[in-house]
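To illustrate the input format used throughout this study, we show a single complete record. The first block contains the structure-token representation of the backbone; no residue identities are included at this stage. The design step must infer an amino acid for every position from geometry alone.
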């Protein structure tokens, strides 16, 4: 369901939009579930994740674990009969099936609009909206990484009203493996925006705090978390259909740090923190003409550093999503509307708002009849994972969930080729990291030919590698073999000191020396 209009709608109207919006096109054979065409460089084929049947799937989301596995979730879109389920699948990094479509909502009555996230222990959390004693509440389930149930489906927080709600929730996990949830409920004649904090088992620590302005409608939220465990939230708030993009910030205990700051028009945001704790937001803006996709960068005080910058190239755009890789590159996706077709769009930005890859179509054919809702995630090897709702197999009748993988390499290769060759190359991935990071290094000397490199007389002096904490204390050193020039070597660090003790999270400095060459690199260990 994409917000083609930002006017206030009832729940019934919004469900009708989802069930009826489609583009009639040709019917592909049901068995044609992997489509092979000319794709943009670095992107895989479109891979069908859902079974080939007559059922509808909608409202998808995606997350990746530390093993590069993909967790995708969606609902069964059976709203008319009131039997919608939350369904998930687990795939490896190539899209191969590890766990087929499986229900996680335990036959709840009206389960819909799911979100998925992986915590620091590689457990998988799902939230969604479903019935509660009063109106739509927040439900939760938790799985181990092998798919076994740790916490079965349960009502985490009840709603407080029985009226219409836009239903959208969003979720972020802080460094303590606690869940931050933002969601709306209809209370006393208006929709209010709530913040809820759950523990790692899905039990409420903070049941709910109203973060929007009392008496003013608040819809369509997004939430992000920084390394201080602050919650950054944005949503649409209305007073006379003003469609205001509204931003609030709370600390872990629910204390308000910034309250209801307005940034023009917009809603349905995605929010991500970078290593400098600046916040990056993408969102649709209905100010016109049409609905554009915009980008904002905020500092910790909620002040605008960059933007709004327009990312979209089509007149009407659906809900965007965004992920950040270890290079601090932003990867944004959305579905666009042009001449009644809905291509899935992608762009890559740096944290200054510059295009690394300008907006481009990545799903083939260049439309998704009856679909959209593109979601993206980045694994610890910086590969991209994209899913979306697509009606190509049975246009106008059913929708399915498709997936594709992006290598996230063309822009990086082009940048590297434009730079002069350095005497010493060193790369650290992932960084930040939780458990293990890999250090790859290569010593260059282009003045020697291959025959000379094979001669041990041209080996560099034995290199050294050491890691110090933020105050300069040596915590780990490595015994390295002598390295021949122009040949890559690899070292791994598991975040432990020389005695094998786990080090606390924080900033560490890696110093590498080989002959007359040396460099120091910053590492960020997350606990």
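Output of the design step:
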């Amino acid at each position: 369901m994409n917000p083609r209009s930002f006017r206030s709608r009832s729940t019934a109207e919004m469900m009708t939009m989802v069930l009826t919006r489609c583009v009639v096109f040709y019917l592909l054979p049901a068995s044609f579930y992997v489509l092979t065409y000319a794709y943009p460089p670095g992107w895989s084929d479109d891979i069908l994740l859902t079974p080939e049947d007559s059922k509808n799937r909608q409202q998808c989301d995606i997350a990746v674990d530390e093993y590069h596995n993909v967790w995708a979730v969606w609902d069964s879109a059976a709203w008319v009969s009131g039997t919608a389920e939350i369904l998930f699948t687990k795939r490896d990094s190539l899209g191969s099936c590890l766990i087929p479509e499986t229900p996680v909502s335990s036959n709840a009555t009206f389960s819909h609009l799911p979100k998925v996230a992986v915590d620091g222990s590689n457990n998988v959390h799902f939230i969604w909206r479903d019935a509660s004693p009063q109106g739509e509440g927040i439900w939760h389930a938790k799985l181990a990484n092998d798919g076994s149930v740790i916490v079965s489906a349960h009502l985490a927080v009840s709603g407080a009203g029985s009226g219409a709600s836009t239903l959208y929730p969003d979720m972020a996990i802080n460094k303590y493996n606690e869940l931050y949830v933002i969601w709306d409920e209809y209370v006393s004649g208006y929709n209010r925006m709530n913040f809820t904090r759950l523990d790692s088992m899905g039990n409420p620590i903070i049941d709910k705090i109203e973060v929007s302005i009392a008496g003013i409608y608040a819809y369509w939220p997004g939430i992000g978390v920084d390394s201080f465990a602050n919650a950054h939230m944005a949503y649409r708030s209305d007073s006379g259909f003003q469609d205001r993009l509204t931003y609030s910030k709370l600390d872990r205990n629910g204390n308000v740090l910034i309250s209801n700051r307005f940034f023009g028009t917009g809603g349905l945001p995605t929010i991500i923190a970078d290593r400098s704790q600046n916040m990056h937001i993408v969102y649709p803006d209905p100010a016109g003409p049409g609905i554009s996709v915009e980008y904002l960068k905020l500092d910790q005080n909620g002040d605008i550093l960059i933007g709004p910058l327009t990312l979209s190239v089509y007149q009407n755009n659906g809900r965007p999503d965004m992920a950040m890789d270890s290079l601090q590159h932003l990867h944004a996706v959305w579905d666009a509307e042009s001449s009644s077709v809905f291509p899935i769009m992608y762009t890559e930005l740096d944290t200054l708002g510059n295009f690394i890859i300008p907006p481009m179509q990545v799903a083939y054919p260049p439309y998704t009849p009856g679909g959209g809702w593109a979601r993206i995630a980045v694994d610890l090897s910086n590969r991209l994972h994209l899913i979306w709702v697509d009606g190509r197999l049975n246009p106008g009748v059913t929708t399915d969930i498709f997936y594709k993988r992006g290598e996230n390499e063309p822009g990086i290769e082009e940048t590297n080729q434009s730079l002069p060759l350095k005497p010493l190359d060193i790369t650290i991935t992932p960084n930040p990291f939780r458990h293990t990071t890999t250090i790859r290094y290569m010593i260059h000397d282009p003045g020697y030919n291959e025959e000379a490199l094979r001669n041990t007389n041209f080996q560099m002096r034995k290199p050294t590698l050491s890691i110090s904490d933020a105050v300069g204390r040596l915590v780990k050193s490595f015994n390295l073999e002598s390295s021949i020039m122009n040949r890559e070597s690899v070292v791994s660090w598991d975040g432990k000191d020389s005695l094998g003790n786990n080090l606390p999270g924080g900033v560490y400095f890696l110093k590498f020396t080989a002959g007359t060459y040396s460099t120091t690199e910053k590492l960020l260990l997350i606990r």
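Structural context for interpreting the output: The helical segments are 11-20, 410-417, 450-453. Residues 11-20 form the longest helix (10 residues).
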